[in-house]
Amino acid sequence: MNESNAQLVQIPVDDVHVEGLLELPTGAQGIVLFAHGSGSSRHSPRNNYVARVLHDKGIGTLLLDLLTLAEDLDYHTRFDIDLLTHRLLAVTRWVRTHTPPTRHLPIGYFGASTGAAAALQAAAALGEEIHAVVSRGGRPDLAGNHDLARVKAPTLLLVGSRDEEVLELNREAYACLPCTKELSIIAGATHLFEEAGTLEEVARQAAIWFSQYLKA
Questions:
Q1: Using CA atoms in the order 63, 175, 183, 173, what is the torsion angle rounded to 10 degrees?
Q2: Beta pairing partners, 63
Q3: CA distance 20 to 56
Q4: Residue 86, Cβ neighbours under 10 Å: how many?
Q5: 33-60 pLDDT tens trace
Q6: Helix, strand, coil percent content, the chain, rounded in steps of 5
Q7: Which residue of 9, 74, 120, 125 has the smallest Cβ count within 10 Å?
Q8: Measured between alpha carbons, how far is 90 from 124 in angstroms, rounded to an integer?
């Protein structure tokens, strides 16, 4: 297991501060920014589990609360993809200029729910600066066909087999992506991957994807 130190960070974006939990294993090969469509990302047990698996593979993580507590109470704000993308782009710039060791690390995005759309929009905007994207039960369709068609980062879409509506939306988004891509259907899983073994499979596949593509 790699040693790492967790650090709570506050990243100024416009008139708010985006809070995040930054954790870098010794000798990290890259860093993954976690984007979630609600304010729960930093405290999400599912995201924290995936982050721990990534740490064990030598990959750093930054779990983000892209929305403030007040914004998270507004259902519509959770679906404000432009706002989520704007903040994710600002955080990415911060990672690029942050002094200690994040500035030279290859960057990936892990998006869940509407955060997956923000991750793909940001990846479309930044081109080859983003090395990989993984979506867990996400809504990549909300990124819009124009931005999906501009994504260059290798993209893995993970969806539960029993999450039928979201699976169909992922299939439509997948068809629009021109990049290296994979749609992986997790057998027996519903939207939150609460069934035995399904979250472990999500983390396993995400770790393989990031290990493959997060290279300088």
A1: 30
A2: 21, 34
A3: 20
A4: 18
A5: 999 876 566 888 899 999 999 999 999 9
A6: 45, 25, 30
A7: 74
A8: 15
On whether the CB atoms of residues 65 and 18 are closer than 8 A, the answer is: yes
Q: From residue 193, give the alpha-carbon distance in Å to each of 78, 110, 186.
A: 20, 15, 9
Q: How far apart are CA 22 and CA 28, in angstroms?
A: 12
The domain total for the chain is 1
pLDDT attached to residue 161:
98
| Residue 163 belongs to domain spanning | 4-213
The two tokens of residue 63 are: 């779990």
Residues in the chain: 216
Its pTM stands at 0.95
CATH number at residue 149: 3.40.50.1820
* Long-range contact pairs involving 197-204 (C-beta distance under 8 Å, separation at least 24): 198/160, 199/46, 199/49, 199/50, 202/50, 202/136, 202/158, 203/49, 203/50, 203/53, 203/54, 204/53
The rounded distance, in Å, linking the Cα atoms of 166 and 161 is 10
pLDDT tens-digit profile of 139-194? Answer: 999 999 999 999 999 999 999 999 999 999 999 999 999 999 999 999 999 999 99
Dump the DSSP string for 51-109.
HHHHHHTT-EEEEEE-S-HHHHT-HHHHT-HHHHHHHHHHHHHHHHH-TTTTTTS-EEE
The phi, psi pair for 138, rounded to 5°, reads: -90, 180
Query: Angle at which helices 115-126 and 81-97 pack, to 10 degrees?
Result: 60
